Amino acid sequence: MGLMRKGGLFLMVMLLGCLGTFAQDPQFSQYYQSPLYLNPGFTGITPQQRLTFNHRIQWPNLPQAFSTFAASYDIWVDELKSGFGVLATTDKMGSAGWRTTNVSLLYSYKLRINDKIVFSPGLSFGYGINGLDRTKLRFGDGLEFGGVSLDPDLNRLGNQQYFDFSSGFLFYTKSLWLGGAFSHMNQPNLSIINTVTRLPMKTTIHGGARLSLYNGLRTSSRVSYLTPSFIYQIQGPISQLNLGLNYHIDPVFVGFWYRGKPFEQNVLGSVQQDAIILQMGMYLDKLTIGYSYDFSTSALSAASGGAHEISLMYEFSAKPISRGVKKRNRLIPCPTAGRQESFWK
Predict the structure, then answer these.
(1) CB contact set of 272 (below 8 Å; sequence gap of 6+)
(2) Which of 10, 74, 259, 320 is most buried, judged by most C-beta within 10 A?
(3) CB-based contacts of 274: which residues, under 8 Å, 6+ apart?
(4) How far is CA 26 from the centre of its chain?
């Protein structure tokens, strides 16, 4: 029985080590409904204040689905030409309560290059905890001792605390945007077995456009437009491309996205592809509600159940823009946000 106990712990440690070697960030399909998670350059991009909430359940048909939550708050301070924000995320996987939680403070500065273009660099400083619940682990000797393992090596497992540093930038006009983000620039150690397992830096490049579809005067009460966009990410040995198009006609929007790498083939000679994503949402005054479903097109398609995701975004103003603020310091609307018609005038 002792050999089984040691073997079980050794196998688990090896598994944790392999998973850590290819550690990747959780992801949201509704990228622009979780803007601070995508790029700190989006901090303070709306007229004044914004609250967001995101929840994703990945592979719900498996015994233990991956579950990810994110919540954020950011505010635009026109007098300082700056945005300030806070972001909290937690990601849970497996039956042992393996969870990674991170809280970050974000800052961005808005520089108007001219009357049409804004440059928004941003920074993020985070603190995280990565670990599992040892009380949920089950080993062979637990059958002898009432479910409690006596293996002293079990005490090696614990929680890893770490600091995280990220940066990003965004160029945008009223109809175009292009940005980049560099997450985990310090490559923090996430190992929970007293070794060193670095989280690779993630590089994200994203961009898109807002294409108006007016059938008459530009003052039409029903604003309709398209937002084609792309997101390319690379983290360690893994890279991913997302291409999509959203159609907006207030107060609703729908979208179609593809996630994969059509320019690459796997070892079987087939195209590298992950999912087809359908999105839909509705604008309710200051609240935006979104839902998306990932139809898996990979080898897991039959068993995984894809992924469900919901998002909530609430935008509000606490005070009018100060009369003393110069016009050049006031915020130009970014095409990924500010869907109210009056915001675009």
Answers:
(1) 260, 261, 262, 264, 265, 266
(2) 74
(3) 240, 259, 260, 296, 297, 298
(4) 7
Which residues lie below 8 Å from residue 334, measured CB to CB, with a gap of 6+? 42, 45, 118, 170, 172, 177
- Cα distances (Å, whole numbers) of residue 236 to 104, 203, 239, 241: 22, 9, 8, 15
**Can you tell me the distance from the alpha carbon of 195 to that of 19, in angstroms, rounded to the nearest whole number?**
13
- Structural domains present in the chain: 2-344 (2.40.160.40)
Q: Which two tokens stand for residue 288?
A: 């935006």
Closest CA to 56 of 214, 290, 319: 290
Structure tokens at 222: 């029903």
* Stronger pLDDT, 122 or 341, i.e. the higher one: 122
Q: Which two tokens stand for residue 150?
A: 């006596």
Q: Rounded to whole angstroms, how far apart are CA atoms 341 and 139?
A: 60
Q: For position 151, what pLDDT does the model report?
A: 57
Q: How many CA atoms lie within 13 A of 23 on its CB side?
A: 22
Question: What's the CA gap between 309 and 93, in Å, rounded?
Answer: 16
Q: Choose among 299, 234, 220, 313: nearest CA to 266.
A: 299
| CA pseudo-torsion sign 32, 34, 36, 39 | negative
d(CA 173, CA 37): 21
What SS3 class is residue 19?
helix
Would you say 97 and 340 are in contact if contact means Cβ atoms under 8 Å apart?
no
For residues 143 and 125, give the distance between their C-alpha atoms in angstroms, rounded to a whole number. 45
What pTM does this model have? 0.83
pLDDT tens for 226-250 read 999 999 999 988 889 999 999 998 7
Q: What is the pLDDT of residues 261-285, one digit of tens each?
A: 777 765 555 556 788 999 999 988 8
Can the peptide bond before residue 35 be classed as cis, meaning omega within 30 degrees of 0? Answer: no
